[in-house]
């Protein structure tokens, strides 16, 4: 059990090794640390801002000793409530763990603390001719620690993989306050269990990451971005399957449905045909000499009687305009429905049309507008339910609709989350996807890492006891 009111002896112990400016206890100061982009909120009792691994270790040790809930938090850009401190307690903010420790271009890795932002990593390694592939929409602001906690990926996943494929190793403190190092400094290594991949995506329920060794990838010489518009969803989905079945692997393959197109017409510099039913954004990268051939490969895969438009953006200005259209979606939807439900489900690519049509039926059944877009090459679709939670009927219908959305995804051999994580939003649906024996094993792993249940309690697993 954890306590929501801090023991004075605990506070006194924390004050012995952290300076005053590293500790927040005033309700007005800690309030903003109690929410993320899910808009859920619970104020913590204390916020600590450690600057070293040793301070993190001491904090976890004290929380164990006094049985106090501890939630690690980066920049709060997550959308599932994973950093909302349900039992109050202590928020461990990684914002001051923000050092770039080492860049090793010869061996293609960078070692950083979790508070370093994704953008800072990209800027630091660009001068050496590298990048780190994960690129979530919030990459300019989100932290590496958050990227690892959620396994957040973004459009480039299709070619370059998620943080799990782009992280060599970690340094962390388990819930039992044991200091561990996982992984390797090399591109190969099979000694022992892969605890690095286990910790990535565990949403701070097993350990607090204090250092990460990230695998770097050489920057491509050039790239081309294509806008492909179809009259219907089926043709767009068939094109996705065709693109993924040929040798030229795109570095991004994004999908936007007809509802999303209608919604962003006023926010985009791009003009759309009146009968546009779906749009793909396809990006290829590589040596300049190869790119014209790569574009032809993609164009050939995209051919269909329902193809309305195929354009190539080959200047930075045109490419930026296309990506601005894609990135305008979430802000536009937030303006229309500030408390919308945003789920990032995944289905096999060939099942995308069935998913979208199923969502259209659910939208009509529950009278809840649904807008869909996402990373089509992975079958990762962001399903946005637009409603007003202050309207009792809409709120009820939206959650009934969401329940059916998840059933539909699982019927199509999909998974309930691609990169947003579980947090609170999907916690109570996890047992629909994971069988009881496997779920029980996961709980035993959690118990081994965190026997007192202090790390991010109330997350990841349905509350069944």
Task: Describe this entry's structure for a reader.
It is built from 16 helices and 18 strands. It is α+β, with helices and mostly antiparallel strands and 465 residues long. It has 4 domains: 86 residues, 2-Layer Sandwich (Uridine Diphospho-n-acetylenolpyruvylglucosamine Reductase, domain 2), CATH 3.30.43; 119 residues, Uridine Diphospho-n-acetylenolpyruvylglucosamine Reductase, domain 3 (2-Layer Sandwich), CATH 3.30.465; 108 residues, Alpha-Beta Plaits (2-Layer Sandwich); 93 residues, Alpha-Beta Plaits (2-Layer Sandwich), CATH 3.30.70.2740. The strands form 4 sheets. A 7-stranded antiparallel β-sheet has the order 15-12-14-13-17-18-16, sandwiched between helices. A 5-stranded antiparallel β-sheet has the order 5-6-10-8-9. The longest helix is centred in the last third of the chain and has 20 residues.
In short:
With 465 residues, the chain is α+β, with helices and mostly antiparallel strands. 34% of the residues lie in helices and 21% in strands.
Helices and strands in order:
Blueprint: H1 8-15, E1 23-24, H2 27-30, E2 46-48, H3 53-66, E3 70-73, E4 90-93, E5 100-104, E6 109-112, H4 118-126, E7 130-131, H5 144-150, H6 157-160, E8 167-174, E9 179-183, H7 195-199, E10 207-215, E11 217-218, E12 222-230, H8 233-244, E13 252-257, H9 258-264, E14 278-286, H10 288-301, E15 307-313, H11 316-327, H12 329-336, E16 341-346, H13 352-366, E17 370-375, E18 380-385, H14 392-411, H15 430-433, H16 436-449
Helix pairs in contact: 13-14
């Amino acid at each position: 059990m954890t306590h929501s009111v801090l023991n004075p002896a605990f506070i006194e112990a924390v004050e012995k090794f952290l300076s005053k400016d590293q500790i927040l206890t005033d309700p007005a100061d800690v309030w903003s640390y109690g929410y993320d982009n899910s808009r859920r909120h619970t104020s913590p009792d204390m916020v600590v801002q450690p600057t070293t691994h040793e301070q993190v270790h001491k904090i976890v040790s004290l929380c164990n000793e006094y049985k106090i809930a501890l939630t690690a938090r980066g920049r709060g850009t997550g959308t599932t409530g994973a950093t909302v401190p349900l039992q109050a307690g202590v928020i461990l903010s990684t914002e001051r763990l923000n050092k770039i420790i080492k860049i090793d271009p010869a061996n293609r890795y960078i070692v950083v603390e979790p508070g370093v932002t994704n953008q800072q990593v990209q800027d630091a390694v660009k001068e050496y001719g590298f990048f780190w592939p994960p690129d979530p929409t919030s990459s300019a602001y989100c932290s590496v620690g958050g990227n690892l906690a959620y396994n957040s990926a973004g459009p480039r996943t299709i070619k370059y993989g998620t943080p799990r494929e782009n992280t060599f190793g970690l340094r962390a403190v388990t819930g039992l306050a044991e200091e561990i190092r996982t992984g390797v400094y090399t591109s190969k290594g099979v000694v022992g269990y892969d605890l690095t991949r286990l910790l990535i995506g565990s949403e701070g329920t097993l350990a607090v990451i204090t250092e990460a060794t990230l695998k770097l990838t050489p920057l491509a010489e050039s790239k081309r971005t294509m806008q492909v518009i179809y009259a219907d969803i089926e043709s767009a989905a068939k094109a996705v399957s065709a693109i993924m079945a040929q040798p030229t692997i795109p570095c991004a393959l994004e999908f936007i449905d007809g509802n999303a197109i209608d919604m962003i017409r006023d926010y985009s510099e791009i003009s759309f045909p009146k009968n546009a039913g779906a749009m793909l954004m396809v990006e290829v990268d590589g040596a300049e000499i190869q790119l014209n051939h790569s574009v032809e490969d993609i164009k050939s895969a995209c051919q269909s009687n329902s193809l309305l438009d195929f354009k190539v953006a080959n200047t930075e200005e045109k490419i930026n305009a296309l990506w601005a259209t894609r990135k305008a979606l979430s802000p536009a939807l937030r303006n229309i429905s500030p408390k919308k439900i945003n789920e990032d489900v995944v289905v096999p690519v060939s099942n995308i049309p069935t998913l979208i049509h199923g969502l259209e039926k659910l939208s009509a059944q529950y009278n809840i507008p649904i807008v869909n877009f996402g990373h089509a090459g992975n079958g990762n679709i962001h399903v946005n339910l637009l409603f007003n939670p202050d309207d009792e009927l809409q709120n009820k219908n939206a959650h009934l609709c969401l329940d059916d959305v998840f059933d539909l995804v699982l019927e199509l051999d999909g998974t309930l989350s691609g990169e947003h994580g579980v947090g609170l939003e999907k916690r109570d649906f996890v047992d629909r996807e994971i069988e009881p024996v496997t779920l029980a094993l996961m709980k035993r792993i959690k118990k081994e890492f965190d026997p007192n249940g202090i790390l991010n309690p109330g997350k990841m697993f349905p509350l069944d006891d």
